[in-house]
Write a structure and sequence with these properties.
The complex is a heterodimer.
Chain A (H helix, E strand, L loop, with lengths): L1 H23 L3 H12 L6 H22 L4 H11 L4 H31 L13
Chain B lengths: L4 H19 L8 H5 L5 H6 L6 E6 L6 E6 L4 E4 L3 H28 L3 H4 L4 H9 L2 H11 L5 H18 L8 H6 L9 H15 L5 H10 L1 H7 L6 E2 L12 E2 L12 H7 L21 E5 L9 E6 L1 E3 L1 E2 L4 E7 L3 E7 L8 E4 L2 E7 L5 E5 L10 E4 L2 E4 L1 E8 L5 E9 L4 E5 L2 E7 L7 H9 L4 H11 L5 E7 L4 E6 L3 E2 L10 E2 L9 E2 L7 E3 L5 E4 L23 H11 L6 H7 L6 H19 L5 H11 L12 H15 L4 E2 L2 E2 L5 H8 L19 H20 L14 E6 L8 E5 L16 E3 L2 E6 L3 E6 L17 H6 L3 E3 L13 E9 L2
Parallel strand pairs in B: 1-36, 3-10, 9-30, 14-24
Antiparallel strand pairs in B: 2-3, 2-36, 4-5, 6-7, 6-27, 7-33, 8-32, 10-11, 11-12, 12-13, 13-21, 14-20, 15-16, 17-18, 18-19, 19-20, 21-22, 22-26, 23-25, 28-29, 30-31, 33-34, 34-35
Helix pairs in contact in B: 4-6, 4-8, 4-10, 7-10, 11-12, 11-13, 14-15, 18-19, 18-22, 19-22, 20-22
The chains are: A mainly alpha, B alpha+beta.
Amino acid sequence: MRSVRFAARVMLIAVACAIGTLWLGWLSVVGVGFVYGLVESRVSARGSIAALGAAVAWVGLVGADLARGADIRLVAAQIGAVMHVPAVLLVVATLLFGAILTGTAAVLGAAIGAALTGTGTARHARAPSN
Amino acid sequence: MTPKPLVTTLAAAVLAATLYAGLRPIGPLPPVGLLLDPVNGVWANAGTSVPARSEVTHIPGLKGSVDVRYDARGVPHIFATSEEDVYRALGYVVARDRLFQLDIQTRAATGRLTELVGRQALEADEGPRMMGMPRAAERKLAALDPAGVSRQMMDAYAAGINAYIDNLKPKDYPIEYKLLNARPERWHSINSVHLLNQMGLTLAAGGPDHRLLRAAALIGDSAAESVFPVHSPIQEPIEPVEGWTGPHDRFEQIAAPGAPDTAAARVSSLFRQFEGDDPSTETHPSFASNNWAVAPSRTRDGYALLAGDPHLQLTLPSIWYEVHLVVPGKLDVYGVTIPGSPGVVIGFNRDVSWTFTNTGADVMDFYRETVDDTLNPKRYRVDGEWRDLVTRLEEYRDQSGAVIHTDTVRYTHRGPMTRDHGQWVSMRWTLLEPSNEIRAFYDVSHARNVYEFETAMAQNFWVPAQNMLATDRNGSIAIRSTGHFPIRPNGRTSEFIFDGSSSANDWTGYWPIDKYPQSVNPAQGFLASANQEPEIPESQLGYLGGDADYEVWRALRINQLLRTSTSVTVDSMIRWQTDPSSVRADLFVPYFLAAAKREDSLGRGSKSLDSAATLLGEWDRKYTRANTRAVLFETAMQQLSDLTWDELMRDGKRVATPSTAVLAELMSQPTNAWWDDRRTKNVVENRDDILAKSLVAALHIVTKKHGAADAGGWRWDRVQFANIYHLLQIPAFSALGIPVQGGVGTLAPSSGAGIFGPSWRMVVEMGPEVRAWGTLPGGQSGNPFSPRYTDHLRFWESGALQPLLFPRTTGELPTTETSATLKLEPAR
């Protein structure tokens, strides 16, 4: 059950991040993470959830191009070469970039949320342990 | 669960750092956020690399629907109902494929690269501005009839480009804009003039031979004029000469090196901008265009044939964009355009085909001006009277629009004036004077025979002068060196800089058209040009300039092939474009071998010399990719040049290198003083001594560098490459180290750095139905991620041409040959 809730949260964040990125640009994931942190300030692993959600969102957005026939591998290889990094690192950097922005924003949001509500008890949802 | 303060602090710090990286440029790279954004960043360009199979777009100003069919090679066939619409659509499709190229080339032409890349481009930007090019474009545009055909074409074309730009979302910006953190600029009609001027700068910036001056400064006038003659010592001109059945030598005794000429040294120092000679190479012709036509009487199928391959700088995307424009009953033309300029430059219609090579005429003169104030002149004196200088403030801006530098450019009635070594010098140049090349392109697209073609070109195409070759369906072949050739009042003088204080030194006009070098349907049944001197010196109306930059070997080879072929086919025309044989090698190899034999017979031979001669003797004198002997010959030629022209060395560098045609002339004078290597004391070398020395040295160098002769390292394709750089010189977007057939002096010569070559290859058969073949060194798309970015390259590399489809209607283009469609409708 915990895993399902975790996955649901990740998907929710992913959808929010995808919509935000599509409509407002990459900076919107910071807002999504922050709001999520505020709202679920007592949820443990909120940073991981937000980070994972953003990564899933951005994978989805890039994947949509891939599904339309775009040569993502070529772009990764060539832009990687321009930036003097391996292609795979460019992909990882992209996902990490979104994940870090969203995850850290969620942690900040949670801290502010907790400060505002004055609560400090974990309500539910922990990161699943395999 | 309340976050721990440490975690919160750490998160805040990481977030701040990530945001900083996301929003601020890091070094030469744009903000990471802009690049990695999965919707608008670099990933989005993967999505734009594959154009939609079918698309409908509305663009303002169209009078009717335009049907664009992209064929399997990515060439748009544009079917419109009016010529204005066809050029509007052309602007749109060119922008769709080549937007960044349009932008950066215009900025380069106008000296505005700093606005894209910042201060680092300042020096490059000063060049065109100080040469007066932006002002010249403005004057050319102003001189055009606002209601005339040229303006209509340019305005419609500009509107088409802008229609594309206006519909563009940031995510669709070409990748280069994202890497530069820039955005496309709207297009102006004048940009088309700027781009044509830029082509003119490339092809018509040849003034007097400054190598002569630099040489004279070291060895005196007489010797310098001997080794840097205006006219090539080996002649086979473009205009056939009655009674000639091959090349003619004009060998004269070459004057021995003499005392330095200090006056030449002084004048030479005024032309620092032309001191670009590479002392390490024998010669380095940058451009090497070819064209030839064969009359029906000499072709197997009885139709006139035409071949053309203009050699220019190789770039990705290509310098050219291939199109087919159709307006039923009015226009049906196929060929290549300069992206940014409307009109087919090289191509064919249903009746005529045409192609160019550069004439390389001297159309640039310099004048020493007398000014009223050495530091800040406002007037200059001509014929004893002061005239006001025109001044123009040139402002250079950075990416933010801030002015980072200013220049004041002064103009006399001749042209821009610059100060160098305390001397004010103005320049007159045909490129800076009003002309209307776009009108010429329009007219020739409607030409019905070679006469109409040549007339249309002569009326409006003035610069850069081109050897314009045409064939028609009636079987006629014609060529004319077309452009404005100045008439100097005293012909050519030995002075490289004229006295500007007298109007008597000004040009008095241009050559009349009937005096242009030309030929129609010559008895020999073929015509060919390869940048050689267009007519024999005795026929020239006045000083035209020399052809030393290009060398004569390609012309000799084409004529050799054409002369010996009486049943020419399309296949042979295509094959000849990458012909690996070299007349230059045919001439020099026997000299090397004979010298080795002579040294041997005199008991001065050596094992190395024997080995080198044996290896060279095995060479079939062809520059094929698998050849393993050409490298020895080229190195020997390099050594020969170094040892022969040692008198032209200054401070460890050769100031100028005579042509190999002059070297061939020197070969006929085995004891000429030039053969003596001044670096060897108490020995006076002759020709064969130097040849033998060169050959031995070459074997040593090649073995050291590439290993043993048959170990694989001597293969020509391991030594010589073509390098096609992206416009921003980004290696990842470039095609580098491409093995190609050809060497110095062959029809497809590969230059040292491999950055020049055939920018377009085309063969046309003018039968009852026109058939054509062609290829580009790249592809139609400027998007490095598109499969169309380099899809023609493999054909270009192998010397193969692709059939060019020439449908009269959309219905004639088979569905199997249609890769995409684009419907352009008038905006609602």
